[in-house]
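Example record

One chain of 211 residues, shown exactly as stored in the release files.
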Amino acid sequence: MVRLSMGCGGALYSPRLVLTAAHCVGATGTNTSITATLGVVDLQSSSRITVRSNYVYRAPGYNGSGRDWALIRLASPVTGLSTLPIATTTAYDSGTFTIAGWGAAREGGAQQRYQLKATVPFVSDSTCNSNYGGDLIPAEEICAGYASGGVDTCQGDSGGPMFRRDAANAWIQVGIVSWGNGCARPNFPGVYTQVSYFASSIASAAASLGG
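Predicted structure tokens for this chain:
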């Protein structure tokens, strides 16, 4: 898990790359303005690792709807921390997911010093799309949350990972926090970029960025 200085989350894709949301970053190109904080739950911990960015790669064609992923290249590699593999098939795009971040603990609330986490169940594309009046892009997005609301990602969690265990009991990232109507409202599940749909694009972009 990575906290980004613009107020978003991310996941360590490789020692030098952070996977986040396109809506968290500006255009593709050199960017030294982002600071990533890693390796801690408490953002003020003396053991935190901070690294500056040197380049941002935003999903080609991103225009505010769909394609909500981006990679941030760090100025130096981070050693000693686990990376989070991404789902390359839809095999894990259901079930119960874990979400985490330093964003608001309630709608309109303050950002958090300590990372919070929760679990949320998969919501089908058809249910989610009817909840959102057809605004979902089913191939590119995956929804999760309770019909009764109460548990969700919120402002400041954008770009962070939604993840679960794979068949080998290892963590795998299936989503990127993208959007929703408010936070934890009944019948408005969180909407996440469906990582499996973009896996090959993410991998090729990562290769072009050097890892």
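Notes: DSSP finds two helices and 13 strands in the chain.
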